[in-house]
Automatic annotation (TrEMBL), chain A:
It comes from Linum tenue. PANTHER family: DNA-DIRECTED RNA POLYMERASE I SUBUNIT RPA43, DNA-DIRECTED RNA POLYMERASE II, III. DNA-dependent RNA polymerase which catalyzes the transcription of DNA into RNA using the four ribonucleoside triphosphates as substrates. Residues 209-239 are annotated as: Disordered. Residues 216-227 have a biased composition (Polar residues). This is DNA-directed RNA polymerase subunit. SUPFAM superfamilies: Nucleic acid-binding proteins (SSF50249).
From TrEMBL, chain B:
This is RNA polymerase I-specific transcription initiation factor RRN3. It comes from Linum tenue. Transmembrane segments: none annotated. GO terms for biological process: transcription initiation at RNA polymerase I promoter. InterPro entries: ARM-type_fold, RNA_pol_I_trans_ini_fac_RRN3. Belongs to the RRN3 family. One of its GO terms (cellular component) is nucleus. One of its GO terms (molecular function) is RNA polymerase I core binding. Residues 702-727 are annotated as: Disordered. Pfam families: RRN3 (PF05327).
Length: 239, 727
């Protein structure tokens, strides 16, 4: 999942003098007021912050209302989806005209039928709507599925994302992961010699099942502690 | 014109065949349409048609179709694209042709076979119509707007049309743009769900939810629309209490709340917007007059707020709903004016009745009472006061909500919110009259948890030196009144908090070894007065239980009162007097000095310590004057009337009395010039509606026993917290 990044920020928080007794709680309150809102400065939505030891002092600004300006450093988790980024979200509603997704639990995304590739066909089963991939009958998108989609645009005020399922690498995450895993191991076996291949095949088969267990259908790809985010963070650090 | 006639005939033929093929509802309609279509097939038309010839059949067709409803737009039909102008006939032929063509299409759309195909076709045509607006073709769009703007009562086919259009529109929401489709959006958001049947309501709500989910810009308006449907239109408002109104309420409100829940599931951030929208749309805001309409609207609105508080999305909006309701109660409370009641008439004691009623009834000219009567707050005047009535009904609603919270096992979280709201607002509201009874009732429902929390918060606020002065004094006044009046509070509970209070006062004495100074030691004097007030009510009870008696006697009470700071001189004289009497009788404390108060209610010194806000005379839990609310409070309330004091001997010794319900016997021993107030709602009796005059007449007798059957209304007059039951 793209769009998440950890940034190091130098912030200046203006604290009301009445809060001067308890600076740290005032600072946390100020920062918490920024959460889940789009901020121009960060160019994204602030999701979490980690403040390192705020100083217990700050300069008093002159003026009618003498605020105290406290400098601090913070690590911020920022979500800034840009067009053509891949995002993952949970499907909450499927209709013939749209798929409604919730990303990271707070941002709602919509994928209209014009943005869904023709591979997917809408069907109704047991009163529920779902999209079935014509080439792979197992590839389903229904309420509760985690899907990966591409960002078309985002409304910063309302944190509403317009997505698209046109590219081939979008769809149900479970199926995509299985598919990519399968292709990875397959490519390895192709290069080996026939004798070794057989043994490698066995080995590969074993690996696939192992990984098959790893990609458990019940696993929620969303836990913040999971790999995806760590990867992202490492990536950003490198960049 | 040949092309025209060909088109006309082909359409007419198509219409006829379709009509003939299927079963239609009305034979008359079929006949009419067929006949008008047949006219078009007039052989004369096939040949070169003159204008008149075209005109006449078209007229007939028009006549035939105009009697029907506005048809659905289906621009895909060729007919709608015909444009020609025959101004001599004076019709807008384009309109006519499209009407014709579209009417045919409507019929097609309503065919019973092949519904699923029709649905998606319909959706597709709607989307086309919406998209075509930006390119300038607004015909079908305008018709759609008309459909969504129903007026008056809907005929069944109009309702069906609205239903179908709404369902189709739900599928086309992605193409609704706030720029081009402003009129349509406005029409949708102006709809009142109370006018429609259940299936139309369901379809409309589905549309609203889809609209909110499709575009973040619409979320606010969708929420606005749902919240505005919390209150019905005036016609329904009138009959809300009747079965028909109730049925409508049951039809609409649960669906609206379900829609709110659906929106927050699809758009998580919507829930955070909801609280502010609910607050904005409140029917009654402070500084406004209350009239019958706004009262009814406010009542049903608050009912909805409570539904939100206990509903599916309560974790997002619940706390704010409770706080907003408390703010409304407080605003109404403040709006009920005390109206120049505060005359410093010192002829009455805190525990004595108001003699004004008597004077009023007799017409006696009494120096004190003269000229101040009409504006005093009395129950009679309150009953005519709509603001008070609204506050009364809202408080009853709140009490009922608290009761339902108990059954849902949610009282503790509700109470937490109430307590924080109380601390923020009611505690510091200048002389809040009735709002605090919400806390009282909540504690009555759960004395162990809520009562303890409330008392602890108050005492912590009092002893916390960093709190503002008035808050501390206010808090201790609340504590004193609460401990004195809560029938549900066990004596041991009262004793423990009294102990803390006494300890604090003694510590203060030790630390501040100064002389009497009302202004400097305000907090101390208010603490002492609170002590005395609690003991006036509870001394007898505590003395009767040996453990508590020993606790009481161990407290440094006499040391405090004998200290240089001299609280007995500063505190409210009537309270001091009563306390001394009781303390002497219980042999708890005897003052060496004699205090001659001359029945003073207040003294200059008490005024000094009370400060500008007269917190020396603030007894927040004095009897509640709001009739309906009081009926909830009454079973849990201690009336001064029934308090057994230590200086009264029990008349019936062998009576088994549960200490909480005081008997009346004490009253007989009162001094003659202390007329006892007849407390309304003596337990076990019913409320009797009484004329104020009769009531006053009855009050004149000294022995309340004779009047046990009468005077069962709330005492008519009250001074702000002057006497506990001066009412």
């Amino acid at each position: 999942m793209e769009g998440l990044s950890v940034v190091q920020a130098n912030l200046k928080v203006y604290v009301d003098p009445s809060q001067s007794k308890n600076l740290s709680s005032a600072i946390f309150r100020e920062l918490s007021a920024l959460l889940f809102k789009y901020d121009d400065a960060f160019d994204g939505v602030l999701l979490a912050y980690n403040v390192h030891a705020p100083e217990n002092k700050g300069r008093i600004l002159p003026g009618v209302h003498p605020f105290i300006a406290v400098r601090l450093e913070a690590k911020l988790l920022v979500f800034s989806p840009k067009p053509d980024m891949l995002l993952e979200g949970k499907v909450v509603k499927v209709t013939e005209e749209s798929i409604h997704v919730i990303v990271l639990g707070f941002s709602s995304a919509i994928i209209t039928d014009e943005a869904i590739r023709n591979e997917f066909k809408y069907k109704t089963k047991h009163g529920q709507g779902l999209y079935v991939n014509r080439s792979n009958r197992r590839h389903l998108i229904k309420a509760g599925t985690m899907i990966r989609f591409v960002v078309k645009s985002m409304n910063e005020e309302t944190l509403h994302i317009y997505g698209s399922l046109m590219p081939a690498n979008t769809g149900s995450v479970k199926i995509l992961e299985k598919f990519s895993e399968h292709t990875n191991t397959e490519s390895v076996t192709i290069n080996s010699t026939p004798k070794k291949r057989r043994s490698k095949e066995k080995y590969e088969v074993a690996q696939i099942t192992e990984h098959g267990n790893h990609y458990d259908p019940s696993q929620n790809h969303y836990d913040p502690s999971q790999n995806h985010y760590d990867r992202e963070i490492k990536k950003s650090r490198r960049s | 014109s040949i092309a025209l006639s060909f088109l006309l005939t082909s359409h007419a033929a198509a219409a006829i065949t379709r009509e003939a093929e299927r079963k239609r509802r009305g034979r008359r309609r079929r006949r009419r349409s067929i006949s008008s279509a047949l006219l078009l097939l007039n052989p004369r038309l096939k040949s070169f048609p003159s204008r008149r010839l075209i005109g006449v059949p078209l007229l007939l067709t028009l006549g035939g179709f105009i009697t029907r409803q506005v048809p659905l737009p289906l621009p895909s039909l060729a007919a709608s694209r015909i444009s020609f102008d025959l101004p001599s006939i004076g019709f807008n032929f384009r309109c006519v042709i499209s009407l014709m063509g579209v009417e045919v299409a409507t019929n097609y759309a309503k065919m019973e076979e092949d519904i699923s195909l029709t649905d998606s076709q319909l959706v597709y045509s709607f989307r086309l119509a919406l998209k075509s607006v930006s390119s300038g073709d607004t015909e079908s769009y305008r018709r759609l707007v008309d459909v969504m703007n129903p007026s008056g009562r809907l005929a069944p086919d109009e309702a069906a049309l609205l239903l179908t259009s709404t369902k189709a529109l739900s599928g086309a929401v992605a193409d609704i743009d706030d720029l081009h489709h402003e009129k349509l959006l406005k029409a949708i958001f102006n709809l009142s769900l109370w006018n429609f049947g259940p299936d139309v309501i369901d379809a409309l709500l589905e549309l609203i939810v889809s609209l909110a989910a499709s575009n973040g810009k619409h979320v606010d308006s969708c929420l606005d629309m749902l919240v505005s449907n919390f209150t019905p239109p005036n016609k329904v408002l009138d009959m809300l209490k009747q079965p028909r109104g109730l049925e409508k309420k049951e039809r609409v409100l649960p669906r609206v709340h379900a829609a709110l829940k659906n929106i927050s599931e699809l758009v998580p951030m919507a829930a955070s917007r909801l609280s502010s929208i609910v607050l904005e749309q409140m029917p009654w805001k402070s500084k406004r007059n209350v009239d019958q309409w706004s009262m009814k609207r406010q009542l049903i609105y608050v009912e909805n707020m409570f539904k939100l508080e206990s509903g599916a999305i309560r974790e997002f909006v619940g706390a704010n709903m409770l706080k907003d309701v408390m703010n409304v109660l407080r605003d109404l409370d403040v709006a009920i004016g005390w109206d120049d009641i505060l005359h410093d008439d010192s002829s009455k004691g805190v525990f004595m009745i108001e003699l004004e009623d008597e004077n009023y009834a007799d017409g006696d000219e009494d120096a004190d009472a003269d000229g101040k009567l009409p504006s005093t707050l009395s129950e009679k005047s309150l009953s005519k006061n709509l603001t008070a009535e609204l506050l009364d009904s809202l408080m009853v609603q709140t009490f009922e909500h608290l009761e339902s919270s108990v059954s849902n096992k949610r009282l503790s979280e509700v109470f937490d919110t109430l307590l924080s709201s109380f601390k923020d607002t009611v505690l510091n509201t200048y002389k809040s009259k009735f709002t605090q009874f919400v806390m009282f009732y909540a504690c009555a429902l759960d004395p162990e948890h809520c009562g303890t929390e409330f008392a602890s918060e108050l005492i912590d606020m009092f002893v916390g030196g960093h709190n503002p002065l008035t808050s501390r004094m206010s808090a201790v006044a609340y504590l004193a009144s609460f401990l004195a009046r809560g029938k549900f509070l066990p004596p041991a509970f009262v004793a423990s908090y009294l102990g803390r209070l006494v300890d604090w006062c003694w510590q203060y004495c030790v630390m501040h070894d100064g002389d009497m100074n009302p202004k400097l030691h305000q907090v101390f004097y208010s603490g002492c007065q609170a002590m005395m007030y609690i003991l006036c009510f509870r001394m007898r009870l505590m003395v009767e239980i040996p453990l508590l008696k020993s606790q009481l006697f161990c407290m440094p009470i006499d040391k405090i009162f004998k200290h240089k700071l001299d609280p007995l001189k500063v505190c409210l004289p009537s309270i001091v007097e009563e306390f001394l009497k009781q303390a002497k009788a219980a042999r708890l404390f005897t003052s060496s000095k004699t205090f001659v108060f001359e029945d003073l209610l207040v003294s200059n010194l008490s005024r000094d310590f009370g400060g500008l806000e007269r917190l020396d005379m603030f007894f927040p839990f004095d009897p509640c004057l709001l009739k309906n609310a009081d009926s909830f409070i009454r079973p849990n309330y201690v009336y001064w009337k029934y308090v057994r004091t230590t200086y009264h001997e029990d008349i019936d010794d062998d009576d088994e009395e549960d200490g909480s319900d005081g008997e009346v016997e004490g009253a007989a021993e009162f001094d003659d010039d202390m007329e006892e107030v007849i407390i309304s709602r003596s337990y076990g009796d019913n409320d009797l509606e009484m004329d104020e005059f009769d009531y006053a007449m009855n009050k004149m007798s000294i022995t309340p026993r004779n009047n046990s059957s009468a005077g069962l209304r709330m005492p008519s007059r009250i001074r702000p917290s002057m006497s506990p039951e001066s009412l």
